[in-house]
Write a structure and sequence with these properties.
heterodimer, A: 167 residues, alpha+beta, three-stranded mixed beta sheet, 6 helices, 8 strands, B: 38 residues, mainly alpha, 45% helix, rod-shaped
Chain lengths: 167, 38
Amino acid sequence: MKKTAKIKKEELSQFFPSTEKPLFTDVSYAMFTKDFLLGEGYDGYKKWLSLAGLKSKSGRLALWRKSWDCDNLSFSFRTYMNMLHARENTHTFTERFNKGVENASDAEGVAVGVVFYEIQKRAHHAINVAITTSVTGDLIPLFIEPNNGAHVNLTQKEKDSIWYVNF
Amino acid sequence: MVRKLLKKIFKFKDEEDLQKELFPKPKYVSSYNEIKQK
């Protein structure tokens, strides 16, 4: 089986030059495609949340509420994407050795993180960032608003204000 | 009770169907261009 691509934490940190100490809790990261993250992946996340009674009201896209706000949304989105990665790669070392089976990926985690940045003076916001590829195959940071699954274009000023990164 | 509710919400046929609905198979990036050092 052909292994999927993976990226090391040192490579990930290059995308956040303004952040003093980005946090990486795994050594290597697999990457999901942009289409999957914004499409099927986000749809699954919404369904997963709705199991806990956290769903959008009256047809609105937004999942936000005061007790379930941007930090909760972004951390849960990151966790959910890591759950998908874990479910897809279940073979243990022993199984791989004894049975010759392979996982799709041997990366420890998936490159979906949480960032906090400044939206106004003294107002901060948490969203997700996924490292994925552009149509030309270059690695890009894809900022995602977990409240509605939209791709967010951060301004350079906003990128420079990112003070927390956690993959 | 929960199972009934889930069936109503997601219209899943069985456990496997439910899992597929809640946890789609991820699509991975298979390759990428090398990062150019800045």
